[in-house]
């Protein structure tokens, strides 16, 4: 899993599967964090749920999580502000985390 430290936080790649049966973090695969989301990929619904799922899992405010690029793609770059790479370890464990 590739994490990039920035002055504002940490960036990492995410692969999103919209319209799944449940929202969950599936762990790392091919250098990206895999997410399954129940929202459809219309009107930013999947992007909003992506941000909510990451923020809830980390126990931080949604305002600290943003999509830096790939807003209309399944492959996105997400930034989490004000954290270190070590603080993101909960996202990258192998077992699934369900919302």
UniProtKB/TrEMBL annotation:
Gene3D superfamilies in the cross-refs: YggU-like
Family in the record: Belongs to the UPF0235 family.
One GO CC annotation: cytoplasm
Record protein name field: UPF0235 protein GMST_04310
InterPro entries: DUF167, YggU-like_sf
Superkingdom assignment: Bacteria
Pfam families for the chain: DUF167
């Amino acid at each position: 899993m590739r994490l990039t430290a920035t002055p504002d936080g940490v960036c990492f790649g995410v692969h999103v599967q919209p319209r799944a049966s449940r929202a969950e973090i599936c762990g790392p695969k091919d250098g990206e964090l895999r997410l399954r989301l129940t929202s459809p990929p219309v009107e930013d619904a999947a992007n909003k749920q992506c941000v909510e799922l990451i923020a809830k899992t980390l126990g931080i405010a949604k305002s600290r999580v943003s999509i830096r690029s790939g807003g209309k793609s399944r492959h996105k770059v997400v930034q989490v502000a004000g954290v270190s790479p070590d603080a993101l370890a909960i996202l990258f464990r192998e077992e699934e985390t369900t919302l």
